[in-house]
Amino acid sequence: MEYFVQLLLGGLTRGSIYALIALGYTMVYGIIELINFAHGEIYMIGAFTALIVSSVLTLYGFNEFAILVLASLIAVIYSASYGFTVEKIAYKPLRSAPRLSPLISAIGMSIFLQNYVLLAQTSDFLPFPALIPEFNFLKNYEHVFSSSELVIVLTTVIVMTILTLLIKFTKIGKAMRATAQDKKMAMLVGINVNRIISVTFIIGSSLAAIGGILIASHIGQINFNIGFIAGIKAFTAAVLGGIGSIPGAVLGGFVLGWTESFATGYVSSDYEDVFAFALLVLILIFRPAGILSVKCEV
Amino acid sequence: MLSLSNVETYYGNIQALKGININISAGEIITLIGANGAGKSTTLMSISGIAPPREGKIIFMDREIHNLTPDVIVSLGISQVPEGRHIFPELTVLENLQMGAFLRADNKQTRDDLEYIFELFPILTQRRNQAGGTLSGGEQQMLAISRALMARPKLLLLDEPSLGLAPIVVKQIFEIIRKINTENNTTVFLVEQNANLALRLADRGYVMENGRIVLEDSSENLLSNEEVRKAYLGI
Lengths: 298, 235
Prior knowledge:
- The complex is a heterodimer.
- By secondary structure, chain A is mainly α.
- Chain A has a single domain (2-286), classed as ABC transporter involved in vitamin B12 uptake, BtuC (Orthogonal Bundle).
- Chain A is 74% helix and 1% strand.
- Chain A is built from eleven helices and two strands.
- In chain A, helix 2 (39-59) runs parallel beside helix 4.
- Chain A is globular, with a radius of gyration of 19 Å.
- By secondary structure, chain B is an alpha/beta fold.
- Chain B has one domain (2-87, 153-233): Rossmann fold.
- Chain B contains ten helices and ten strands.
- Chain B has helices spanning 40-48, 70-76, 93-100, 108-120, 122-126, 137-149, 167-183, 195-201, 219-224, 226-233, and strands at 2-11, 14-24, 29-34, 55-60, 63-64, 78-81, 155-159, 187-192, 204-209, 212-218.
- Chain B has a six-stranded mixed sheet with strand order 6-7-8-3-9-10, with helices on both faces. In chain B, strands 2-1-4-5 form a four-stranded antiparallel sheet, with helices on one face.
- The two termini of chain B are 34 Å apart.
- Chain A binds chain B through residues 171, 174-175, 177-178, 181-182, 184-192, and chain B through 48-50, 69-71, 74-75, 79-80, 82, 86, 88-91, 95, 98-100, 102-103, 106, 147-148, 151.
């Protein structure tokens, strides 16, 4: 039973990270119908920025809590500005081009950002400091659910609640939904669609950066390549849930996280990715538009 | 109030508007009639900045607007109800109306306007928390017009408001258009295929063929014009 709970919570943690990244894919897809393949790299840049900032702040002797807050804040801002800039450089000029063009541009952006970090940093794995403190009350349950896992799950819940409220009730959130549903009409009521697209990229990138910091701090190492596999997995989660749907991305993230966790726990850890993608294939066969499909195209 | 001079608009290499001239004075109801594909909708899209003209000038209240973006044009006081209504399907009726007022601060005046809309269209009050996509065609048209009114436009552009609606609903819609014109002093530019109805409502009319304005006259004269009667009134 304890083993089951451990896998359940482990899956929840993984799922949270996938969900955080998947939201960026699904929101961007919802608004401009583009799979932003550079999104995984934004997550990686978030983790790197947090590493650099926390190293510098440690040298200056800041306390742990200040380092956590400042490193996260700067990483989020930095990643958001990357997401914003990537859209302006690589996607905006292709707004009226055939759909394949921005997709290829996205893949190019992804390769560029990976290699840019590789050259600017290193190809080695770098140790990532444990930014998340150990809580005393979890000491006896450490082997089942660690402090960093708790923080990951809690942060995800808080972030998603805020995002849901933002999209449901604020003016900008309503404008985002309006733009996703009918872009031309959104322009006709006076919504600056380019600004909405930028806001979407900024929010998606911020969420990815939060995911990057959390998981890097949990696992304890990063390199330039972490965005690739995380990006593919989160993309899988978004497709599982129904791309374009926000609750779908969250659900897809958790379904994927649990699948991986239970499959590696009860079968074999060598086949982690096999199970993830086998699930994707199954969903695509039996429910091609995803679990919570928004638009069923006929 | 609004003047188009020698406006030429292209879709790619295809010329949709071949140098058109239209003048609208404040307070008027003007109609633009013509066959399918004549360029009527393009004219409205050019005014709204969605399909900006390649040549010519569009002047609204002494200001050149042909180089402005759609959101700025809305902020100057031009709102459009496009053909096919384009309700945001998954937004509620209330949210659709709030989007109409997107550029206005959410203050007392906006809320008063919302109350006015609900008085004007009691059916929308009943449906206020329903998704826009679940409304009937007539209700959607009322919502589309209301959403445009929420921006407090000085000039209202209407594209085929009668399209696909039952005659009784069309009559209702046209009565409301007149009401909007007289009560709020909103200038109306109405594009219609239903020339008979449109000319009965409008003060003046333009007739469009193949991207050109071929005729311009008062509604009475157009209604009795032999060619118009043959081509558009089916008499």
